Amino acid sequence: MQMPLDLLKIETHHRGEAIIAKTIVAPYTGGAGTVTLIEDEAGNVVKLAMYNQADGSILSNLPEGCIVAIKEPYYKQTAENDFVISVDHPSDVLLLRFKDPIIPGKLKAGTEAAMTKTAEEWRSVGDAAFIQRDFPTAVFW
Q: Which of 77, 104, 118, 137 has CB 3.0 to 4.6 Å from 41, enough for a Cys bridge?
């Protein structure tokens, strides 16, 4: 069952729940994982920290504007007194396609620009990412 971000409870593994949200900033990759901000259809924002992702995986460096589904989110307080959804296994997060029917209407509305890009525009952005050795972003575009 899909849940909004504002119903997350600290130090809780939300069994049987899922979150669908859009990345709203470029990811920060450092230390053991990747951290980004996600926003749900109600406009709630929270940090998403993903660990144990392969370096070549798109999930290791989610480009801004991606829509993800997070299975059974675990919301925790970090040692730095920060709050994040922690994803520790690659199978707990899924990159959704822009036309996926499970994407809520408000999140889908923001994807029209990406869906109207020409193949040449997609390739150009992907090529630029490849040249910068940002392989996950290159694959996404």
A: 104
Range among 4-13, 59-68, 105-114 with highest mean pLDDT value = 4-13
CB distance 62 to 51 below 8 Å: no
pTM of the model: 0.77
Do residues 36 and 25 make contact, with C-beta atoms less than 8 angstroms apart?
yes
Q: What is the pLDDT of residue 17?
A: 96
Total structural domains within the chain: 1
Among 87, 99, 102, smallest CA distance to 1 is for 102
Q: What share of the chain is helix, strand, coil (3-state, %, to 5)?
A: 25, 30, 40
Residue 25, domain extent: 5-140
Residues in the chain: 141
Which tokens hold the place of 89? 């296994």
Fill in the amino acid letter for 86: S
